[in-house]
Design brief:
By secondary structure, the protein is an all-alpha fold. Helices cover about 60% and strands about 0% of the residues.
Length: about 110
């Protein structure tokens, strides 16, 4: 649904994924994780500000879910570690988008970075 032609469908899908990442991140199957992260990241630069803002929301919630991960403290890594360099670079590009002032996109991108 993130690839649907209708922006409202993409917006709602990205928001729903963000809520799942917020409330039920441990329920996401491990084999689905790369598709999830790459799907959200793929909506950051070339979508409407509204859709990209919701993708930022999803990434923010995903990262927040791992912030209290005790396994990461002992291992020094978590499921997001391999994606972080590219995600941060892409989020910084989102901040510089010419339409970043629409739909709170710039704010959402900075929240996802934090």
């Amino acid at each position: 649904a993130l690839s649907d032609q209708n922006d409202l469908v993409k917006d709602t899908t990205a928001w729903t994924i963000g809520r799942i990442c917020d409330l039920h991140v441990r329920s996401i199957p491990e084999e689905t994780f790369p598709t999830l992260v790459n799907g959200l990241a793929g909506k950051l630069l070339n979508e409407t500000p509204r859709v990209s803002s919701q993708a930022c929301f999803g990434i923010h919630n995903l990262a927040a879910a791992f912030s209290n991960d005790n396994t990461a403290e002992t291992a020094g890594t978590n499921a997001l570690t391999t994606y972080m360099p590219q995600l941060l670079q892409t989020l910084l590009q989102v901040v510089d988008r010419s339409d970043a002032s629409e739909s709170n996109l710039r704010i959402c991108a900075f929240e996802a970075i934090s």
